[in-house]
Amino acid sequence: MIDHVSIAVRDLAACGRFYEPVLATIGYAKLIVRPGTIGFGKKYPDFWLNERRAMTPADPDSGTHFCLRAPSVEAVQAFHAAAMAGGGTSEGPPGPRPEYTAGYYAAFVRDPEGNRIEAVTFTVGGR
């Protein structure tokens, strides 16, 4: 079981402004701000941004992505819309992904730093 995830970003302030409204669509809030880091979560911070100013941009072919559970189809749609409004890019609009499993409904985005983030909910069978 994974307890938390951290992603590295070059511009912490800009990414914090991007992620705050995006993550709010799936019930996350900014819970901790410390020098060089921001923690988001529902009850405790389980999604962290860590500033790494000298880092090279995320390689789009790395295959790395992070998936966060959304409470509903509407939340997945709002997640994608907020990401687009905040300067992210779409890697797959909200919609069913039956090739993954029945009821899988997701959206994929890249943040301004190139990190690939997914929001998913399940419309049948739950998980």
Give structural notes.
The structure is a single chain. The chain has helices at 12-24, 73-85, and strands at residues 5-9, 29-34, 37-41, 45-51, 65-69, 89-96, 104-110, 116-122. The radius of gyration is 14 Å and the shape is globular. It is of the alpha/beta class and 127 residues long. A hairpin with a 2-residue loop joins strand 2 and strand 3 (37-41). Helix 1 packs antiparallel against helix 2. It contains 2 helices and 8 strands. The chain has one domain (5-53, 64-122): 2,3-Dihydroxybiphenyl 1,2-Dioxygenase, domain 1. The strands form 2 sheets. Strands 1-4-3-2 form a 4-stranded mixed β-sheet, covered by helices on one side. A 4-stranded mixed β-sheet has the order 5-8-7-6, covered by helices on one side. The model has no long low-confidence stretch (mean pLDDT 92). The longest helix is centred in the N-terminal third of the chain and has 13 residues, at 12-24. 20% of the residues lie in helices and 39% in strands.
In short:
This protein is an alpha/beta fold and 127 residues long.
Shape: globular
The CATH top-level class label: Alpha Beta
- The overall pLDDT, averaged over residues, is 92
- The Cα radius of gyration reads 14 Å
Number of helices: 2
Helix percentage: 10-25%
Side-by-side strand order of the widest sheet: 1-4-3-2
Distance between the termini: 14 Å
CATH fold field value: 2,3-Dihydroxybiphenyl 1,2-Dioxygenase, domain 1
